[in-house]
Structures are given as C-alpha cells and as structure tokens.
Specification:
9 helices, alpha+beta, 6-stranded antiparallel sheet, 300 residues, 2 domains, globular, Aminoglycoside 3'-phosphotransferase, Chain: A, domain 2, 3-stranded antiparallel sheet, Phosphorylase Kinase, domain 1, single chain
Length: 300
C-alpha cells in the first residue's frame, strides 16, 4: 500500500479532480499480472474507487459501453458505476463494489455451486438486455469466427504430429464447421471475459452478494463465447458447477450452441498449445493439452 504519488503524475492530477481526499488517500496497484491495463484501488476518507488506465482507445470505449450496458442489464449493486472518464488518456474512475474476487477463494462445494448459479443468472440478464448490432459489427463477428477457424487449420498443419488422432479430428472439425455453425448462433452483447477472476462474492448478508467487473472485452458477439473459459477450465472436472451455472442461466444450450462451444474451446486450447510450444512456455503448453483432452471427451 502506497500513497497517491504512486499513480503517474498526470493521471494523479486528473484523479484528484474526481476523488475527494487524494492527498491522504492510500493507493494499491490492483493490476492483473498478465493484463495490459493498469488498475489502482484508491481508498480515500470519503470512500473507495478504482482507477483504470487502458493500453488502447478500443479497450477504453468497450469499458465505457460495458458500464452503460450494465446499468440497463443488472441491479445497481451488481456492477461498478462510471464516476469519471477521459478518452484522451484513456482512463476511467469506477465505483468500488463489496465482495472479493471469486478466483482463488476457498469456497465450500455448496457455496461454490451457489456462486456459479448466481453467475449464470447474472449472465442471462446481461445477455437478455438488448444492444443494437450494426451490419459492420455483424461482419466483424463473422470475420472473427472465420479467422479462428483458419487459425485452427494452420495450427493443425503445423502441430498435427503432436496431437492424438482424436485431437486432430477435433481441431479439423473446428476449422471446417465453425463458420457454418456461427450462422445459427444467438447474437448478444457479450461480457468477453466471463470467469471467476471477474466475479465478486460476499457471503454476507444472507443470501450473499454477487457482482461483475471488467468490461474492456465487452462487445457484440455470440452468447456461447462467454462460456468458453468455463467449458475449458471448470466444467470438465466439475460438472456440478456446469449444472449450477446453467440452472442460473435458466435455459439449456441448443445442440448447435453445444457443438460450437466445444469447437470454440478446442480452438482456444490448440492456440494455447501452439503459442506455448513456440515460446517454450510450459504453463501454456499444459493448459492447451488439458483443454484439448477435455474437449475430446465433451459431448458435441
């Protein structure tokens, strides 16, 4: 914990105009180790807030639009509110929320299931709140899934001998089928990074508080894209969490969505593996192999 001078000087001057008591405030660097954005937790005499500095205007604009979407989709206490914004820096000041980040919390099984049920319910409400999708955005979405399919095909050519026959078939399916499946997938305004590192949880007061943060990846896209991390990292070994989440989401995935979800997750897994092998990054290699092994066994 440091004083407010730990903020870059020009950013600190701007923040001082929006947070009272910065001269005596304490500031903690709250940035994710692998993230590009910088985040600071500011505790002043009159309350708490978060300051976020973005590496690009695009991420800034997505955060701002995500905050706007949250005001229509979620209850007031479930998402941070935009207190100040500056597109020139680009930076924002966001209200603080109760609770702690779910990732890494030592939750009992029943409590963890409850959190995932709440997360499913929150995501359904986020997805159900409409946002206009322009023709240009629709073209971007379809181009993105085509690019993912093309990437899978290229990686298959490069790494085919390092994949099992079943994994080769899976990646080949992703390369061949994803663009066609995309034509039938529901389009929504997606969060873009829907995982426990962006969920907040406070068990008090009963029945507990659940919130959502970090909107810099939010944009129009496919509903199932917000399930890819869960599908690859959580659900294969914890089907109880899948059941809890989908109970909260209040609808089952269609057969087309289920197949697309598995193939999108497999594409991500083989991309992890390819990057890990190229950079000799054992974390990415292990992550990629684990995802592929799980997706081979997943119903599709």
């Amino acid at each position: 914990m440091t004083n407010a001078a730990s903020l870059p000087q020009d950013l600190r001057r701007w923040v001082t105009r929006h947070i009272t008591g910065m001269d005596t405030a304490t500031v903690t660097d709250a940035s994710w180790p692998r993230g590009d954005s910088r985040v600071w937790h500011v505790r002043a005499d009159h309350g708490e807030a978060f300051v976020k500095l973005y590496p690009s205007t695009e991420k800034y604009e997505r955060e701002v639009q995500g905050c706007d979407h949250a005001t229509r989709a979620l209850a007031r206490h479930e998402a941070p509110h935009l207190l100040a914004k500056d597109p020139e820096r680009p930076a924002v000041v966001l209200s603080a929320l109760p609770g702690r980040v779910v990732r890494g919390l030592p939750l009992e099984q029943t409590e963890e299931q409850h959190v995932h049920r709440l997360a499913g319910n929150l995501l359904r409400r986020w997805h159900d709140a409409p946002e206009p999708i322009s023709d240009l955005e629709h073209q971007r979405i379809m181009a993105s899934v085509t690019a993912q399919a093309d990437e899978a095909a290229v990686i298959l050519d490069c790494l085919g001998d390092q994949l099992s026959p079943a994994e080769q078939d899976l990646v080949r399916d992703a390369a061949r089928d994803l663009p066609g499946l995309a034509q039938a997938l529901p389009l929504v305004y997606r969060h873009g990074d829907y995982s426990p590192r962006n969920w907040l949880w406070d068990p008090e007061p009963t029945p507990g508080y659940h919130g959502l943060i970090d909107f810099e990846e939010s944009a129009p896209g496919f509903a199932v894209e917000d399930l890819v991390w869960l599908c690859g990292a959580a659900w294969p070994t914890r089907p109880d969490l899948r059941d809890a989440f989908l109970t909260g989401y209040s609808r089952l995935l269609s057969s087309t969505e289920q197949r697309a979800l598995v193939l999108l997750t497999a594409r991500l897994g083989v991309s992890y593996l390819n990057t890990g092998l190229a950079k000799t990054d054992t974390v990415l290699i292990d992550r990629g192999r684990t995802v592929l092994e799980h997706m081979v066994r997943a119903p599709r």
